[in-house]
Amino acid sequence: MQLEDSAVFTNKCFKGELPSCGHVCPFHLDLRTFMDKAANQKWNTAYKTYRKAVIFPSVVAALCPQPCLQHCQRTVLGDEPIAIRDVEAASVKYAKNKKADTYALPPKDKKIAVIGAGPAGLACALDLANKKYPVTVYDKNEGWGGHLRDHPRFDEFDEDFRTQFASVKVDFRFGVNVESLDEIKPYDAVYVATGKNGSSFGLLSSWDPILETTSQPGVFLGGELCGRGEIESIATATKTARIMEGYVQTNRAELGHDEYTGCEHILPHKGARKSPRVVMSSPDGYTAEEAAAEASRCLRCDCSLCYDECELLQSTAKPPRKMAVEVYTDSNANPPIATHEITRFVYSCNDCGHCKQICPEGVDIGSLLRFSREDRFGTKNEPKALHWFWLREMDFATGEYSFAAPPKDSSRCEYAFFPGCQLGASNPEHVLRSYDFLSENYSTGVILGCCGAPAYWAGDKSRFDKNSGVILEQWQRLGEPVLVFACATCMNIFEKFLPQIPRISLYELLEQKGFTPVGAPFEKAAVFDPCAARQDAAAQNAVRSLSSKAGIITQEHSQKGRCCGYGGQMRTANRKLYDKIVTNRVSANDLPFIVWCANCREVFKSKGKECAHILDVAYGLESGGVPSFDRKRANSLKVKETLMRELTGGGFSVQKQPWDDIQLSISPEVQEAMDERLITGNDVRETIWRSIESGEHFIDPEHGSLLCRMVTDVLTYWVEYRKNYNVYEIIDAYSHRMHFKEGV
Predict the structure, then answer these.
(1) Are 728 and 672 within one domain?
(2) Residues 29-53: what's their mean pLDDT?
(3) For residue 186, cis peptide bond before it (omega within 30 degrees of 0)
(4) Over 247-312, what HEC string results?
(5) Contact of 480 with 511, CB cutoff 8 Å
(6) 257 lies in a domain?
(7) Pair 188, 137 in one domain
(8) What is the reported pLDDT for 185?
(9) Strand arrangement of the beta sheet that strand 524-528 belongs to
């Protein structure tokens, strides 16, 4: 991963950057910070914030045309825009310390000439003088200010100029009318700002409005000479000063790094109330109290749309662009040691895509984190234990569970049912009855397997691509039918990576055929859509129609489009965050849930939430509890066995392991703990069997129990048990990532 690869996902984010008013400000003033200081009457710090941006505070506060007013988001609420310039003027008026900042920089040897002591020339000279360049300013008048000398408030402006130049050394040569650039040689760079209708020394026709350069090397034009207004002249002069600094150092005139400084998007401002503009009690401007009250009207516009709705982002105060840098650094700059904090963050995303959808700039934090997982996979920076279990389950789904066949007595089919690996594991009848419906109405084959989501979430691109290739071959072998999906995640994966395969949801077909559901477990329910189907309006509508036909009064879940918590398998990386997400979804609606994702059902059932799968409603099935992982495998094999017998008349046998005959006795409490820890009965059997074979175990004479272990490439399993005749009573089972080496 390169830094630019990481940043591409987040470089358009404007969280923490300038709001719309500051974005259009010629000086890109940080109005959010400024208004915050002003609202609290911290006039000295408000003034410093203002001065840092505008360079001549009194001049700008008096003359700025205020393009910001048209972009003040107070108007979204029907209010007048904030009187920004008047609050800025108050900061100038009420600040006690206006001494200009000084910079401890070494003196430079490159000489700069400025022709014209108007606003633009002074701004350019001051910026370069602050950086310790020797600057000489020429002007035909007997003082500075240019045409501002005729302004009725020039005394204020003059005081401003004196304050800003008090701490720098500039050689002012007034009363000097420069008629030719040859008169002032030698200088390393010259800035010509002679004002409206002033002399350009014949260079205006070659002027570049972006770089301010001319056909004569080292000579720059700017200010009102180039058709700009007073305020724009001051703002662009400081930019030109930076270009000139680069030129005298490198002999090249170039723009600096073009950072994203904000945007003009209108934000929703939920919960904000209308507030009328504060009326001045005097024509001389706001009192300190009035200015503070007006500043308090500022909405402090900052985008937080993704943070408002993503529990992962809420757990960090870092803006996405900083996240991108940290993610890159974590996995690349300091290998092979990755920081625990960032690694956990990378693997705590459920990859639901909600952040990208609600972001006005399409910032895709989820893809950044998944990209990092892919980059880490197979390296020392990959925490293998976090996805090892799920990849193992995927291997089962693509191995022992896998099966593809056309309808009986046929070689091709119009449709093929792809139920995925979780639907049948949760309840075999969901798959079997759905296939019965499909086969009765269409020429329907079947493809049993996994879409590859576990590998996709883990960053295992090789495993994912291999699985996609197998599915593609199966689909082609069946005559390239339309695939029917019951799982939104599967359908979403196919849409992204196998777009050549036509797709439709089972629920659409049920609705199209006028299917009448036979069950109604609830009188009223909230429909919870899987996050992967956020854009699938057809399937969403079909589920609601089926619920209505069943007589269920439905309402929308208040957190529509949000992940249940299952996505990305983030619960193994961040159990605390997972619990928070699930609790938030469960508590958002008091009604029972209608779901149409087996994983959503499992997650909510595990938290005690009353819910039913739409296929329970359709076929009148009981919505039972959450099956154990062992039961899920058995359920999956039942689906395969039934469909294989129906379509081929044949069967299959599962490869027998030497530990399969070990009989276990597991209490509901221990079983629950094992499922929580992602430990299967098969893991327990193998651990016990290997202990018997090796003769290695620990004995607890006080309780009469034995403790044994099994070391794998990723985890070490521990099982505590008692043996009663031929039955092993499991007392506890757990695992960890520590490895033990013999003889050390």
Answers:
(1) yes
(2) 96
(3) yes
(4) HHHHCCCCCCCCCCCECCCCCCCCCCCCCCCCCCCCCCCCCHHHHHHHHCCCCCCCCCHHHHHCHH
(5) no
(6) no
(7) yes
(8) 85
(9) 553-556, 524-528, 593-595, 611-613
User: Which residues form the domain of 374?
Assistant: 3-10+304-383
Query: Is 647 within a domain?
Result: no
Grouping H, G, I as helix, E, B as strand and the rest as coil, residue 379 is coil
Reading phi first (left if > 0) and then psi (alpha if -120 to 50, else beta), residue 145 is in: left
The structure tokens listed for 555 are: 């309402």
3 state SS for 188-202: CEEEECCCCCCCCCC
Same domain, 347 and 199: no
160: Cβ contacts below 8 Å, ≥ 6 apart: 56, 57, 58, 59
Distance, in Å, from the CA atom of 507 to the CA atom of 615, rounded to the nearest integer, reads 9
| C-alpha–C-alpha distance, residues 580 and 731, integer Å | 29
User: Residues 574-617: pLDDT tens digits?
Assistant: 999 999 999 999 999 999 999 999 999 999 999 999 999 999 99
How many CB atoms lie under 10 A from the CB of residue 218? 19
- Domain boundary residue, one of 337, 353, 383: 383
Q: Are residues 72 and 117 in the same domain?
A: no
| Structure tokens that stand for 446 in this block | 């079947």
The whole-angstrom separation of Cα 586 and Cα 608 is 9
Q: According to the model, what pLDDT value does residue 330 have?
A: 76
Residues 470 and 539 in one domain: yes
Domain assignment present for 631: yes
Amino acid at residue number 588? A
Structure letter (DSSP) for residue 70: G
CA 12, distance to chain mean position in Å, is 11
Question: Three-state DSSP class for 725?
Answer: coil
Please say whether the beta carbons of 475 and 447 come within 8 A: yes
Q: Are 91 and 145 members of one domain? A: no
Alpha-carbon span 71 to 75, nearest angstrom: 8
Within 8 A by CB and 6+ apart from 450, the residues are: 394, 397, 398, 401, 420, 421, 467
Identify the band that residue 349 occupies on the pLDDT scale cut at 50, 70 and 90. Answer: very high
Which tokens hold the place of 676? 């929580």
Residue 139 falls inside a structural domain: yes
The separation between the first and the last C-alpha atoms of the chain, rounded to the nearest angstrom, is 37
287: which 2 tokens? 């009192």
pLDDT of residue 142: 95
Domain count across the chain: 5
Contacts of residues 199-203 at CB distance under 8 Å and 24 or more positions apart, as own/partner, are 200/225
Q: Are residues 459 and 542 in the same domain?
A: yes
Task: Give the integer Cα–Cα distance in Å for 139 and 114.
Answer: 9
Is the domain of 169 the same as that of 221?
yes
Q: What is the pLDDT of residue 740?
A: 57
